[in-house]
Amino acid sequence: MIALALAFYLVFVLPARHLWSDFRPSDKPKRPPIQRYLSSIRDIGLLLLALLFICYWNGYSVADMGLALPASGAPLWCLIAAAVAMTALVIGSFIHTDKMPPEKREQLLAASRDGGMPTNAAEMRLFAVLVVFIGGGWELLYRGFLLLVLSPYIGTWGAVAVSGLAYGTAHGYKSAKQFSLSVLMALLFAAGYALTGSLWWLMVIHIVLPATNAINVHRLLKLQ
């Protein structure tokens, strides 16, 4: 019952909260980035503590949660491919940033500030912690845990669909394009986990993508 309660929160309550936050009218100024980072770390940390208790209570193993070390086959090859692809992405992103014209840099910085990216050293340090919680924590909760708990009731691909829709919706609604892309990527990640049974390669991608964006913002500030 405890596992189903957490699943209900992840599938219904958390996405509904984020949608409500985006749709309700509000004239309050945005909180400073550090406050938002700390709030997100706290929220994910509490959910992970609940997950840890559930794993202990139900006897879920590391392998059950998709955390077995990838020694061979698809999990290992996907991890290698993810590491190579993310390395190429980081290098390509650095080259692109260095060649970017000044006016484009200003536009990107303005969009990054509005999107909550770190813009100073203190924010960058805390954001580094946050991306680990985001990339590791959400993969464990929305992929490893939800597929494990929901598959006996609705099948593996039913669980993939529910997980993907829930996690995509939990990103909130900024525009039709953003919402559609969030759901699509969440479905692809859930399908990737269902096919390989490993979270490690997904965690690498999920951590490196936002980290690269933050590092680029930091580089842009130095190039000003």
UniProtKB/TrEMBL annotation:
<feature type="transmembrane region" description="Helical">
    <location>
        <begin position="179"/>
        <end position="195"/>
    </location>
</feature>
<feature type="transmembrane region" description="Helical">
    <location>
        <begin position="6"/>
        <end position="23"/>
    </location>
</feature>
<dbReference type="Pfam" id="PF02517">
    <property type="entry name" value="Rce1-like"/>
</dbReference>
<dbReference type="GO" id="GO:0008237">
    <property type="term" value="F:metallopeptidase activity"/>
</dbReference>
<dbReference type="GO" id="GO:0004175">
    <property type="term" value="F:endopeptidase activity"/>
</dbReference>
<feature type="transmembrane region" description="Helical">
    <location>
        <begin position="44"/>
        <end position="62"/>
    </location>
</feature>
<keyword id="KW-0812">Transmembrane</keyword>
<keyword id="KW-1133">Transmembrane helix</keyword>
<dbReference type="InterPro" id="IPR003675">
    <property type="entry name" value="Rce1/LyrA-like_dom"/>
</dbReference>
<feature type="transmembrane region" description="Helical">
    <location>
        <begin position="74"/>
        <end position="95"/>
    </location>
</feature>
<dbReference type="GO" id="GO:0080120">
    <property type="term" value="P:CAAX-box protein maturation"/>
</dbReference>
<keyword id="KW-0645">Protease</keyword>
<feature type="transmembrane region" description="Helical">
    <location>
        <begin position="122"/>
        <end position="138"/>
    </location>
</feature>
<protein>
    <submittedName>
        <fullName>CPBP family intramembrane metalloprotease</fullName>
    </submittedName>
</protein>
<keyword id="KW-0472">Membrane</keyword>
<feature type="domain" description="CAAX prenyl protease 2/Lysostaphin resistance protein A-like">
    <location>
        <begin position="126"/>
        <end position="208"/>
    </location>
</feature>
<feature type="transmembrane region" description="Helical">
    <location>
        <begin position="144"/>
        <end position="167"/>
    </location>
</feature>
<keyword id="KW-0482">Metalloprotease</keyword>
<keyword id="KW-0378">Hydrolase</keyword>
